[in-house]
Amino acid sequence: MNVELLRWAMSAGITKHVTFHSARHTFAVSLITQGVDIYTISKLMGHTEVKTTQIYADVIDSVRKDAMFKIPDIGL
Q1: Over the Cα atoms of the chain, what is R_g?
Q2: Residue 62 structural domain
Q3: How far, rounded to the nearest angstrom, does the alpha carbon of residue 70 sit from its chain's CA centroid?
Q4: Which residue has better confidence, 19 or 59?
Q5: Cα–Cα distance measured from residue 43 to residue 4, given in angstroms and rounded to the nearest whole number
Q6: Residue 75 resides in a domain
Q7: In a domain? residue 40
Q8: Model pTM score
Q9: How far apart are CA 72 and CA 76, in angstroms?
Q10: Binning pLDDT at 50, 70 and 90, where does residue 12 land?
Q11: In angstroms, what CA-CA distances link 16 with 6, 7, 42?
């Protein structure tokens, strides 16, 4: 798996060391950033507990900020 990831990275011009673990991390963070719910991501990654997937959600501060901006202004 890591050999194939290395080939993909090289063909894309990526010089960073890419592993299966970093690919899974990127997959999870990308889905969270796109607004996919944590339960769906948990199932896609094969996690038995959602709290395992929540580790990836803690990485994204912008998601938290965006969530706060979705709360309507009530004019207080």
Answers
A1: 16
A2: 2-69
A3: 20
A4: 19
A5: 24
A6: no
A7: yes
A8: 0.67
A9: 11
A10: very high
A11: 9, 12, 26
